[in-house]
Design a protein that fits this description.
Elements: E1 20-25, E2 28-32, E3 39-41, H1 56-79, E4 83-97, E5 100-114, H2 120-133, H3 135-138, E6 143-146, E7 149-152
Helix pairs in contact: 1-2
Length: 155
């Protein structure tokens, strides 16, 4: 039996995530991962790429945006928060610093809807925790800001 001051130690595992790609032509490739739909990737139009394709820059911003939402949804489930909607937009700022481009900031603007006014404070706390726990954001040296909007909607 443990006393109240001892903490339960939960073993943590490591995970490996794999992707691959093959060159298509020019400056384009087809990205894939086992069990997932593949897609074409090119440089962004700002770097003479195809405006209709995903670019590493868009994928970078989308990774931050989607990680925040998925972390929020997981924590909301654990906390018993039943939210009615979540949409967001995200914008990454790419700047020339020390002879190369790098992302200096990603701003995520989630709009979260709940049906019960009493859930608004919990929704705010869960989003704050999601922001702190997002593994993509925690893996970056880029500043990640959130500008949330919370709303109350009818059931």
């Amino acid at each position: 039996m443990t006393n109240a001051t001892e903490q339960l130690v939960v073993p943590r595992r490591s995970f490996a995530f794999k992707s691959g790609l093959h060159w298509l032509e020019g400056r384009s490739a087809f990205v894939r991962a086992d069990g997932c739909l593949g897609f074409k990737v090119t440089p962004p139009p700002e770097f003479r790429g195809d405006p209709g394709s995903w670019s590493p820059e868009l994928l970078f911003v989308a990774a931050v945006d989607s990680c925040l939402m998925l972390t929020f949804a997981g924590l909301a489930q654990k906390e018993g928060l039943r939210f009615a909607g979540y949409t967001s937009s995200a914008e990454g700022t790419l700047e020339w610093i020390d002879y190369s481009y790098r992302f200096t900031r990603v701003t995520v603007r989630p709009a979260i809807a709940v049906t019960n006014e009493m859930d608004l404070p919990l929704a705010r706390r869960v989003l704050e925790r999601a922001h702190a726990a997002c593994l993509v954001s925690n893996s970056l040296r880029t500043e990640v800001e959130i500008e949330p909007v919370f709303s109350l909607v009818a059931r």
